[in-house]
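Re: export button greyed out
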Amino acid sequence: MADRLSPTSYVVLGTIALRGPSTSYDLKRAVGRSIGYFWHFPHAQLYSEPQRLAELGLLEAETETEGRRRRTYRLTEEGRAELKAWLAEPTPEHFQMRDIAELKLFFNEVGEPGDVARLAREQVAAHRERIAVYEDMQARYADLDAVAKRMITLRLGLEMEHAALRFWSSLLDEVADGIDETA
Amino acid sequence: MADRLSPTSYVVLGTIALRGPSTSYDLKRAVGRSIGYFWHFPHAQLYSEPQRLAELGLLEAETETEGRRRRTYRLTEEGRAELKAWLAEPTPEHFQMRDIAELKLFFNEVGEPGDVARLAREQVAAHRERIAVYEDMQARYADLDAVAKRMITLRLGLEMEHAALRFWSSLLDEVADGIDETA
DNA sequence: TGCCATACCGTCCGAAGCAGACGGTATGCA
DNA sequence: TGCATACCGTCTGCTTCGGACGGTATGGCA
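Workaround output, generated via the alternate export path:
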C-alpha cells in the first residue's frame, strides 16, 4: 500500500508511534535529540511530510483553530500497519557514509604535505567530543526503562565513533612523525 | 572565489586531478570503483556538474565533433587552486550515517519480537560481505604505488565495517537466545 | 499598562540532489 | 546483414535541502 515511502516518512511515523500524538514542532525537537545525531533531517520536511502522510491516510490531523495554527498528528491503524510492515521487511540497502573528511583524505595526493596531519588532528578532536556527548547521554538515561530500547542505537553510534577515532589517531601517528607538529 | 561548491563539485574536481582529463563516463566509472562505496552519487550529476564547473572556469571542456558527442574535461589552474584550498581548509561537519537498519532498530519497540533478530542477522551477513569485498580490493592493489595513497580510505571503511559487524553480532547474541532461531 | 527582547513555531522558495527512463552509438558474433 | 549487447549521454519530474522570513506567546522591566 501507499506509493512507497521514504526514510523521512518512517521517521515521522515511528516518532509519532513512540511519543503519541505530536505536532511538527514536537517532531523536530524529538528528532533533534535522537535520530538527528546520525541522520540529519531539515526541519521543513517535518512540516511537509506529515501532511503527505495524512493525505495517504497514515496519519490523522487535528488543527487548532485559535492562536498558532498548530496541527497535531496521530497514527491511524493504517499508519501503524505500514510502519510494522516496514520494520518486518528486509533491508537491502547498505549504509552510506557522507564524510567530508574521508573525501578529503581520498584526494590527499593533490594537496600539500601538512594537510593530512591537520585533517587528522581535527577529526580526532571531533570524534572525541562526540564520544563524550554520547557517553553523557548514555549515563543520563542509563536506568530509564522507558527509553532503554531506543538507547541501543547509541551503542552502535559509539562503536562507529570509536572506530573512526582509532583510524584517525593511528593515521595521525603515522603522518605526524617529524613534519608539521604545530597545532 | 566561486559561489560555494558542493561535495559533488569536489569529487569531480578531485577525480579529474587524480586521473587527468576525463569524460563524464570516465568519472562515472572511476567514482563507481572508489568513492561510490561509501558515498553514492547518481551518474546524472557527473554529467551536469562538470558543465557547471566549466562555466565557473574551474574546468575546461573539449567536445568531440564526430560520433558520440563526448566531452573531455581538464582541470584549469583555478580549478586546482580551488581544490587545494578546500583540502587545506577546516572540515566543520561531522559525518552523517544514513543507515536504514539503524533507523529500524531505533523504532524496534513498535515492531514484533522477531524483527530485531532478523534485522541483526541480515546486517551481520551484509557487513561480512562488504568486508570481504574491501579485503579483496586491499589485496589486489596492495603493491600498486600509484594508488597507495588513495587506498588509505579503505582502511577507514574497514574499521567502520568491523565496528558495525561487532555491534550487530553482539546484538544478535543477546537477542537470539531462545527466540526465533529460524533463518 | 505598555514596550521590548526572546523564545517559540510554521511557511515558503530557489537550488541541488536523485532515480531511472529513454535514445542514440559502437562492437562483436551469428 | 541483422541482432544482441555493451557503451554513452540526456532529460524529466520529483524529493530533499538550507535557510530566510514572518508571525505568536511569554516574561520582565519601565
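Chain A touches chain B through 60 residues (CB under 8 Å). The button fix ships in the next patch.
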